[in-house]
Amino acid sequence: MSSTIAKVSSHLHTHAAAYVLALCMGILMVAPYAYFAHGPAYRGIAMMGHDAEEHYLARMQEVYDGHPLLGNTFLPFKNIPYLSPGLGEDLVAYAGMGVGLSATQINLVAKVVLPLIIFLFIYGLALELSGARLAALFAALTGMLATVVMSGDSILGVIWGRPINPELSGVFLFGGLWLLYRMRANATWPAVLLLGVITGASLYLSPYVWSFLGACMGLWFLYQFWLKHYSQSLRFFLAGVVALLLDIPFVLNSIASHSYPGYAAAAAAQEILHSHAPVVGVWVVVLLVVSWFSKSLLGSEARTFFVLCSVSLAIVLNQQVLTGVYVQPGHFHWYITKPFVGIVLALVLWKLLERFAPKIQLPVAAVVSIMLVATAVVAQVNFYNRFDSVATAAQAYAPLVDYLRSQPKQVVYANPDISQYLPIYTSADTPNNAYAKLYVAPPGYLDAVAALPQQLNAAAVQKLGITLVIKDQSDSWDVSHLKLVQTVDRFKIYVP
Length: 496
Hints:
The protein is mainly α. It has two domains: 2-274 and 327-341 and 353-385, no CATH class; 397-495, no CATH class. Helix content is 64%, strand content 4%. The chain is built from 22 helices and six strands. The chain has helices at residues 2-14, 16-37, 53-64, 87-99, 103-130, 133-151, 169-182, 189-202, 207-226, 230-246, 248-258, 263-269, 282-292, 295-298, 300-317, 320-323, 330-356, 361-394, 398-405, 416-425, 445-450, 458-463; strands at 273-274, 325-326, 412-413, 468-471, 483-488, 491-495. A four-stranded mixed β-sheet has the order 3-4-6-5. A two-stranded antiparallel sheet has the order 1-2. A hairpin with a 2-residue loop joins strand 5 and strand 6. Helix 5 (103-130) packs across helix 6 and helix 5 runs parallel beside helix 7 (169-182). The longest helix has 34 residues, at 361-394. The chain is globular.
């Protein structure tokens, strides 16, 4: 027992800087949200702002409501095959339920914990690649924060605060890459199994991470086979088999979803399109070129790792050339390519300074790090300033949320803004939610919902299974054919 404590103490002492910076990274991600939540305007409705954050939160609440498969988050059709698997939402939601937190509360906790883990995984990977703790710290910081500089947009905040993707998918990504690199020389059977599980499970979280890790694993298998390291190549092959076995339920679900009449419309809304056009990513080219010429600086093993990862990115970015299934390339660029470029450039710069200008190595790295942190802080401040007024206005929905929480589960028709918030805080289904189109629905159902303002009568409402109609004072609907049952602050609630 004492030896274990001594080892843990030694480890924490050795890597103390990494743990401190990782914690700072988590605090930076949650800072705008926490600041608003402790402000005078807050009445219980959390700030949101990252792309599709309200969608992810609604999906988490759907898990709380007892629907972990997420067949349809916004409509009263739950027993439908999912189009977007919900492993990420399930993991976060069940963690929240386990510690007694709501969906919005665990979302804030995740903004601290998950970026912290991502930082430590990048640090561990970079430490393996460089053999130097300071270089690994520099690479981890650059990998996570250089994305703001490379995107040229400091208004939307730092990406690692976005729920699920990349907040949780980044854990799978860099955890899988770190494990893969450690397996290059001596792949133990537990490591083989774990890599297969991480890769296979990532399909239920992010198809982008899954395809990238799968391509990396496939190329490492071919590389080891080409070197005639047959035992090692066999281990990578078996890890791939484990991953594919885990993905069988996804394939079966996909086949089932294709049989539903509303599948085509939902797939088109999710931008699952058919195209064979290639995609050329500038940052992928930069990554490949820098990696190819990095051998003298980083060593042959690190160079091989980066080259194979670069080629893997190029492959998955252009998989549609063969498959014809075109998915959003932005998710590769934002959440995989740019962080990876940051890691590679940081390690190359560190080694260049170490070789040619050792006296200014630390000062230059410190200046770059300070500039990156300053840029990230400005991005988070800009994020807060942009969404503060939106979050303040949303506090008006707090009385409505409290009322619906006291009611049985309802199917609610309301304007799009109200429909955005209700599924996050209540068990209500909201057919007028902007994200409802991303799910399989009976043909014509969403068209009928869109037409309701022109025919808001009892027959039309009941036909869609809607049990409540909520009218804000700014809505101009004719509700004379409905029965008023409750007034909550500025909202009037009707039934058919």
